Amino acid sequence: MENKKEMRKWLDDLGLDHPLVIAGPCSAETEEQVLKIAHSLKDTDVNYFRSGIWKPRTRPGNFEGVGALGLKWLQKVKEETGMKTATEVANRNHVELALEHDIDLLWIGARSTVSPFIVQEIADALQGTDKIVLVKNPVNPDLSLWLGGIERLYTADIKNLGVIHRGFSTYEKTKYRNNPNWQLAIELQSKFPDLPIINDPSHIAGKRDLVFDISQEALDLNFDGLMIETHHDPDNAWSDAAQQVTPERLVQIMKDLTIRKETDPEAEYNKKLGNLRAQIDMIDNDLIEMLGKRMKVSDGIGELKKQKNVAVLQTNRWNAILGKMILEGEGHGLSEEFVLKMFKAIHQESINHQEKIING
Fold first, then answer.
1. Low-confidence ranges of the chain (pLDDT < 50)
2. Does residue 12 lie within any of the structural domains?
3. Which of 135, 263, 280, 351 has an alpha carbon within 20 to 30 A of 66's alpha carbon?
4. Is residue 308 part of a domain?
């Protein structure tokens, strides 16, 4: 797929003086609930009212959406508030019903993006549409799969395209519901700078108290907008209750976010510098997290050595690690001196951890 500026036209045509905002409940529950939330958002920065109509759940038995009935509720939202509407589609039938009810923006969910068959079916159903179509990243961190979805849609003559970064599933538990893996989104931006990218802090966070910080990180990385799940009574929501915010909180988030604007000749420099520094901050956080995991493994080794009465320092093993890491470092442009200093510090911390365990 070539780098096409026309993909950005739909966003530029909105002429916004703030990031694009897509907000609304995770799931449409009742007509009253949908309209109540919509009316509370109509005079805010929200550009598209979102609501899940079909809700693919990880395991059966949970609430899986009201189905096509909810599309009529979204039509009422547009009639009563003038807001544009958005929902997720996962197959040809969903697409046909959404188009029939004049939904303005459609997105393909993370579980659908993993399947080229599903994406192709949706692309065929949307052939030539002027609706806005956004593709969420696949649940697994696979940039090629994510871009493949966009390419299939673009080949189907769908020009109003964009992507949604909602984080990636991971077996290891972290403070996030879905690990942001910012570097992967940054790589996508660098390959296709004119492809609008929206951040979904709700699905990354999994908890409403993290939504603001993730939103700010996204804006610092030059994302074009935010998709934030919003509910008038989030604690009693029928799905994803923990990650939804109230309309009042959404308004406050948008007020408190720092939005980088070009206001002087140095703006472009400052914007690029800020973006690069934000990337360094993300990588530094990842480094600390990985080092913490490494020391937990060292603790496990310390327990084994204590059981077998084995000395902490194993010289042959240590020399083998150093030699290997020096070669690895050279391949990444790192000097031998730097690699030695870094791994000596890591090794010493590992020894400290193991000695602490062995000495009780």
1. none
2. yes
3. 135
4. yes
Please name the amino acid found at residue 149: G
User: Coil, strand or helix: which one is 271?
Assistant: helix
Dihedral sign for Cα atoms in the order 232, 235, 240, 243: positive
Give the structural domain span for 291.
272-358
The per-residue b/e assignment along 6-17, b for 16 or more CB within 10 angstroms, e otherwise, is ebbebbeeeeee
Q: Shortest CA distance to 203 belongs to which of 112, 275, 150, 137?
A: 137
The per-residue pLDDT for 33 is 97
Does residue 145 lie within any of the structural domains? yes
Q: Please tell me the predicted confidence (pLDDT) of residue 171.
A: 79
- DSSP per-residue string spanning 30-87: -HHHHHHHHHHHTTSS--EEE-BSS---SSTTS----TTHHHHHHHHHHHHH--EEEE
- The contacts found for 105-108 with CB under 8 angstroms, 24 or more apart, are 105/22, 105/48, 105/50, 105/131, 105/132, 105/133, 105/134, 106/131, 106/132, 106/133, 106/134, 107/133, 107/134, 107/135, 107/136, 107/164, 108/133, 108/134, 108/135, 108/136, 108/149
- Distance from first CA to last CA of the chain, Å, rounded? 60
- pTM of the predicted protein model: 0.78
CA gyration radius, the chain: 24
Residue type, 336: E
pLDDT at site 306:
87
- pLDDT tens string 42-59: 999 999 999 999 976 666
* Number of structural domains found in the chain: 2
Written as six digits, the tokens of 106 are 């459609």
- Among the residues of the chain, which ranges form H helices? 9-12, 31-41, 69-81, 92-100, 110-113, 116-125, 143-155, 182-191, 201-205, 211-220, 247-256, 267-308, 315-331, 336-358
Residue 258: its pLDDT value, please? 85
